[in-house]
């Protein structure tokens, strides 16, 4: 079947996958900022953040799947886009 790319869905599964992958990818930065013990809180908060986003967020956030299983996330940001307030992730 191979690799496919699709938009992030507004589901608990997609939101949790994206949150876990983000925390895993930037683990060192998260541990430095909030400690290892609080990583599950960061995942929970990021997952809730993804669910709460407007459709334009999911129009620019993609999930890569390998043989139907999620394996990656990609977020697009265009020149001139305003930053979203993400200070409440942790």
Automatic annotation (TrEMBL):
Q: Which domain of life is it from?
A: Eukaryota
Identify the InterPro entries for this entry.
Acyl_CoA_acyltransferase
- This chain belongs to which protein, by name? Uncharacterized protein
**Upper classification of the organism:** Eukaryota, Metazoa, Spiralia, Lophotrochozoa, Mollusca
